[in-house]
Amino acid sequence: MAFACSTKAKRWWAFSTAGIVCIVAIILGVVWPIAVRKEIEKEFLLKPGTRIYDNWKNPPVNIYLEIYLWNWTNTNDYRDAGYKPQLQQLGPYTFREIHERDDLLWNDDFTLTFYQRRIWHYEPELSAGDLENDIVVSVNPVLLTVGYATKDNPLQPFLDGLINASFEIINSPFYVVRAKDILFDGYDDMFLKALLNLAEQYPQLVEGITLPPYDKFGWFYGRNDSKIYDGKFTIGTGLDRWETMGMMHRWNGVRQTEFYRGECGLVHGSTGELWPPFQDMRSNVSVFSPDICSAMSLEFDGEISVHDVNGYKWKGNERPFDNGHRYSETKCQCTAPEENCPVLAPGVLDVSRCKWGAPATVSYPHFYLADEKYLDAIDGMQPNKPQHEFILALEPHTGVALQVKAQLQVNLAIEHYGLTMLKDLPEVMLPILWFCQRADISEDLASDLKLLLILPDIGMYIAIGLGVIGLISFAAALYCSLKVWKTSKPEPECTRDKTTETIE
Length: 504
Description:
By secondary structure, this protein is an alpha+beta fold. The protein contains nine helices and 17 strands.
């Protein structure tokens, strides 16, 4: 038994089917990208249970800290005429870096407050130096700090006399220590211990000197596994507006730090690990660093591909350490009275108020992009863009970091500062160490990210495919309507064809 339909019914069914397919294709093409975006937005909000929160609490990528030390090799000759320091680079000493967050507090203004622990584990197989046995010679930073902090103090001559009397046997402005001691373990510094004793007995003598709360000295001493060293962070969760996710709101409870004037002291930018999704990132971005107590602005530097995931790249240019020479908005980087600024030539940033009052600056490694005066004053610097450039790469739709190579160098401004033990030292900006914090997305994570990124395209491909089928169906219906389903007499809508019935 079969059914025979009229030409009118055939036309109705053919055009209706083609129309429905086209409508489904249009709806899918419009709705699918919106639905996928909404789902991604949900997963990229900072709250328990989301993917971004889980990755933030337990980062799925390996982070490494590579530290290079500068060994001052010709200190025996520093009193010679025409003397220039010769520096030897030691390292890298490589450490695996783990981030943990403590005391999470979810605030009513859609922000999250927390402390950050950074834990470092030495990786000898990834290191070029011998952390246990390498000997490092450099200027004593405690002595420099004393001179820098008391240079305008009327009691400095008396303090200088005490220093000379106490350290007549040593009579040297240098330290000679192992690499492990100057980094994380710390060494017993006689100057530091003497100052701590003076602070107890004669507090007026050390007034104005900010002493570290330790009885040893090391550039990373007291930092490993410390909850409070990096300070207290308050960042946006994105629950009010996803553009705020991961952006700094406050550091140690304030929006404006005391270390720099104006905009230079403003707490802003990302912590470097969290970035909001769906941003037009082809402009400069900012990263807040507790190591310099301020934010660094990075310049957009085009596109990049990491494990076949396309993203955008930013680089550190001259602006972060300009001191107001080329960029007027960086004049507030100067910590001296405004009428005396700028004090420093371009290429280094004064962090003295951020780092216990020491005459410390930061720059790019090997004085990359710095004024030539810093390079000419010492031997051993070989600035190189591929090796010393500050790099950040992000996937713009998700805000996932693809590659990070954050590199900074710590320097000490050597001057006499009125102390007898410093009087014969050359007045130079002396590099002490530089570090590279690097992280790259793994191939497995890149594969997961690529799958997430093609989800909107999958829906579009299906919509396009359905649309093509619908148009072909419509064209076939039109052709059949005009050429095949012709009739000159009326026909019933649909009748049973009895000639095909079989009677048993």
